[in-house]
Amino acid sequence: MADVTMTVNGRKISGTVEDRTLLVHFLRENEGLTGTHVGCDTSQCGACVVHVDGMAVKSCTMLAAQASGSEVLTIEGLADGAELHPVQAAFKEHHGLQCGFCTPGMIMAAADMIRRHPEGLDEKTVRAELEGNICRCTGYHNIVKAILAASEAMGGKAKAA
Amino acid sequence: MYNTTYRRASSIDEAVKLLSDAEDGKFVAGGQTLIPTMKARLAAPSDLIDLRHIADLKGVTVAGDRVKIGAGTTHAEVASNAALAKACPALCHMASHIGDPHVRHMGTLGGSVANNDPAADYPAALLALSATVHTSKREIPADDFFTGLFETALAEDEIVTAVSFSLPEKAGYAKFPNPASRYALTGVFVAKRPDSVRVAVTGAGEEGVFRAGELETALASSFDAAALDGAKVSADKLMSDIHASAEYRANLVVVMAKRAVQAALA
Q1: CATH code, domain with B160
Q2: Which chain B residues are within 8 Å of A56, Cβ to Cβ?
Q3: What residue of A is the nearest CA neighbor of B80?
């Protein structure tokens, strides 16, 4: 068994899990943070994207033990209280989701993308950057629109997500 | 995933020791290949020795015409390194097209090189750049390092610590990515030096990365995409799978080589 300690959404937590426990299962089952989804389980779809030490990673492709000692941000920790994060607000405004299954990963990926592109984003860049996130409903069109709008709303400037 | 025992090493020596103490241990760096492989139960190491927290494996140095990249450097770090972007932009371009952004935040140079996937990007870059692979035991020229499908010259308890190379005059990389995995269906890295041109191909060879001698000869006399007009690469020893036949890949090698030369000259 592995003793795991990490900061999740600003809260220090610890637990003892099997060494093989994936970060996504630790978050969902031990912490009850079920906003992070398991889509494909083969590291392709991106529904499980969370931020580890400020960077977007696939939480189904990392052991909880590997993430021990890290700062983790999940979709539950993105909003500032009752006020939606600009990326969440943009997904709502631009109808960037249908069934919503991929949405947590999309939003976490989008926040990371905007952070890495303080100069702003164009459609081509957004589409290329979404290579690791699969959506089966929307055809991506409104997701791309939402990310572009969020990037603009955030002043095209880096903002800690 | 079968059960395993996770161990975190803080130095190279400690990692080697942890591996030798393990029954059937494996080193893990970013884990972007190994963790999915374990999830699919295609690998079941008794112990996972995590190299991600070893400070000695990190960092990029560009000094004069020498470049050295620590094995623990992630693809995202290579892609966005300012000194490297000036010195060898082709390598940054290549790293920026591995997998997807999330994979690039975890996946490392050393992991890619040690795994030697026949469709991975780094092996082509290292072979074309005549790079040296530094390990916990020795230095191995790229020419001798990649020995076959997922096979390298590494011993079981040997860790890739860094990769170094001297800067080429010009370099370029072009790949035709598999639209699902982003692995190279065929990728070609070209590196031009005053006295030679090296062309290395990934994603196409039955035995992994290889040099395309006929294309090197054509480019040595004239380093221009036009020099490859009408060039042919034999489909013998190229891969055939559901994505592409060997003949299709043979054609792609020439097309990607042309694009890589154009990128090098741009």
Answers
A1: 3.30.465.10
A2: 101-102, 105
A3: A116
What pTM was computed for the model? 0.95
Residue ranges and CATH numbers for the domains of chain A are 2-76 (3.10.20.30), 86-153 (1.10.150.120)
Q: Among A56, A61, A129, select the one facing B35 at the smallest CB separation.
A: A61
Q: What is the CATH number of the domain that holds B11?
A: 3.30.43.10
- Torsion A148-B108-A20-B39 (CA) sign: positive
Q: Report DSSP letters for B11-40, one per residue.
A: SHHHHHHHHHHSSSEEEESS-TTHHHHHHT
Chain A contacts in chain B segment 105-124 (CB below 8 A): 105-106
- Closest-CA residue of B relative to A131 is B100
User: Residue B258 maps to which CATH number?
Assistant: 3.30.390.50
Query: Are B62 and B143 in the same domain?
Result: yes
CB atoms A19 and B102 under 8 Å: no
Does residue B138 contact residue B227 with C-beta atoms inside 8 Å? no
pLDDT in tens, A84-120: 999 999 999 999 999 999 999 999 999 999 999 999 9
CB-based burial label for B262 (10 Å; 0-12, 13-18, 19+): middle
Query: Which of B8, B31, B52 is nearest residue A61 as measured by Cβ atoms?
Result: B31
Which range marks the domain in which residue B188 is found?
170-265
